[in-house]
Amino acid sequence: MAENTLLEVRDLKVSYGGIQALKGISLTVGQGELVALIGSNGAGKTTTLKALSGLLHSTAGKLHYDGKSLHHMPAHQRVSAGLALVPEGRGIFARLSVAENLQMGAYTRNDSQVTEDIERMYALFPRLAERRAQLAGTLSGGEQQMVAMARALMSRPKLLMLDEPSMGLAPLMVAKIFETIRAVAAQGVSILLVEQNAKLALEAAQRGYVLEGGQITLEDSAANLLGSDAVRKAYLGA
Fold it and tell me: Which residues are CB-neighbours of 122 under 8 A, at least 6 positions away?
């Protein structure tokens, strides 16, 4: 494992019943790096993030995070270790307020800076500050995505995993979400970004992987993937 590598995945395999969803993928995320994982529906992108976060068990492969093996580590311990997932569909607590959702994001912490971090989230997401007392389920889709991201950041992750953050959002809100993703990355948080909008993802990332049929078919700098004929034809509508 390279000195500046935060996450290293080697030959990861995951099966649902008799179906092999991941067929031995390998990828890395460096300290402070934003890495995009792109691919078509059903390629295995969400399965990858669920396996990394401990929500799915792998059938083979090695997962090393921050110098430690994730093998047999339950999901809640991975959060405590600094691995946070913003799931596809957001998964917020709809009947809790915005403020209560953020407090839930800090459930693994026992330090005295939770209130300070909530205010930091309000600075990062000013719209949430305006709606702090509002039930999260009554917010717009974009605002709910902000809640989900802020809640994950409340755990003070070293690695933030984002699953389809632009899904179902209006273009203006997508732009705001990606502006925030860049801001979080600029603060030194490593990010593994799964995103259907390949152009947006690769424009934000330093490196990228293309996942097809449960296998990594391409890996390169984000700039090179944006310029690739194969990627343009398959994902960029060119």
Answer: 128, 129, 132
